[in-house]
Write a structure and sequence with these properties.
Layout: H1 2-25, E1 37-42, E2 47-55, E3 58-71, E4 74-88, H2 91-96, E5 106-124, E6 134-146, E7 151-164, E8 170-182
Antiparallel strand pairs: 1-2, 1-8, 2-3, 3-4, 4-5, 5-6, 6-7, 7-8
Length: about 190
């Protein structure tokens, strides 16, 4: 009888321990502060971007819009595809200060890639063939804020390596600024009881 009672007690305690850990982690991929999906339309440089929350404080994003590449060999301006792997580092500090973290409002460090397409280039002063593509690979530090009405701004500053397709390679900065509107609904911040 004592063994059955001990076994039953251990089983109940382990169930409550597992349930408490499940509730603390969050529902989908441990996304406590990040949105699972976020679509943004950029107004200053016409374009759009999509951000996918992966894990706690980590997301990937891709966007298409106008941008300028500038490095040792010159500049190129035109349609660009921007890809980022972001790590948001200050969510907890913003929560402790009672600041907004919804819709991925926070500061981040990101591995960055940008592809400047030759077919949709507006202007350039880089010497080489007319149909060259240019890629940027580096790191950026960014600040993203989204307000209750859905307006969003994102500013990034970084440096990296520009790899040219038919033009010389080189190192240079990356400055990226967008202002737009988030089209997806934000997740509820109200507690959920099962």
């Amino acid at each position: 009888m004592f063994r059955k009672l001990l076994f039953f007690s251990i089983l109940i305690l382990s169930f409550f321990g597992a349930f408490a850990q499940f509730q603390e982690r969050g529902r989908t991929f441990d996304l406590v502060n990040l949105e699972r999906h976020q679509v943004r339309f950029d107004l200053l440089s016409p374009g759009f971007s999509y951000e996918l929350g992966l894990f706690r404080n980590q997301s990937i994003s891709t966007g298409l819009g106008l941008a300028t590449a500038t490095y040792e060999e010159g500049y190129a301006f035109g349609l660009t595809m921007n890809n980022r792997y972001r790590y948001y580092h200050n969510f907890q500090r913003r929560i402790d200060m009672d600041k907004n973290v919804s819709r991925n409002s926070g500061n981040y460090i990101a591995a960055a890639q940008a592809i400047f397409f030759s077919q949709l280039r507006v202007s350039t002063n880089i010497e080489g063939p007319k149909d060259f593509n240019l890629g940027f690979y580096g790191m950026v530090y960014g600040i993203q804020r989204t307000y209750k009405n859905g307006f969003n701004f994102n500013a990034e500053l970084g440096a990296g390596f520009y790899k040219g397709d038919g033009v010389p390679d080189g190192y240079g900065p990356l400055i990226h600024f967008t202002f737009g509107w988030v089209a997806t609904k934000r997740k509820s911040r109200e507690p959920v009881f099962d």
